Amino acid sequence: MAQHNLTDTITFRRGLTIPNRIALAPMQSQSALEGGYASNDTIRYYNHRSKAAGLLITEFHYVSESGGPAYMPGYPSQMGIYSDVHLEGAKKIAQALKKDGNKAVMQIHHGGRMAIGRFINHQDVVAPSDLQRKFLFVLLLKVKLKRSLQTLVVLQNELLKLALMA
């Protein structure tokens, strides 16, 4: 059995190479602006972590306006990547993370029934079921199942294009 060191370069099956075997786990920077935009603090946060690992994973970005933000009242906003308007910030984050030769991955998600930011702003919360979630009070979620599987695939493809542009 071969012995590997954390500082060894690793090449994945599809050809992606990272300079070492260390990954930075996704952590919320708590610096996003209202609407899911990256702030100067967000860019600074990722700039400071550019040498932390060979593979750097961003905090979670919500992928549709109906999917976030997923934060409790009193928290800063969450990063978004559901529109071209988020692209400038995403590019700056990618540049900050990759500037030292590392690879960057954007963590994406749809908050579903956990999109508390929508609920407290009196907006519809989109989830796959009508399960209730208890926070400080019981949330009765409005369930909307308008999106078909085909629509979700189109959304996923559009997000992939945005992520590749960043």
Give an account of the 3D structure:
Mean pLDDT is 80; it is low at 135-151. The longest helix is centred in the C-terminal third of the chain and has 17 residues, at 149-165. Helix content is 26%, strand content 13%. Helix 1 (40-48) runs parallel beside helix 2. The strands form four sheets. It has a three-stranded parallel beta sheet with strand order 3-4-7, covered by helices on one side. Strands 6-5-8 form a three-stranded parallel beta sheet, with no helix packed on it. The termini are far apart. It is elongated. It is an alpha/beta fold and 166 residues long. The protein is built from four helices and ten strands, in the order E-E-E-H-E-E-E-H-E-E-H-E-E-H.
Q: Care to give the gist of this entry?
A:
The chain is of the alpha/beta class. It is built from four helices and ten strands, in the order βββαβββαββαββα. A hairpin with a 3-residue loop joins strand 9 (133-134) and strand 10.
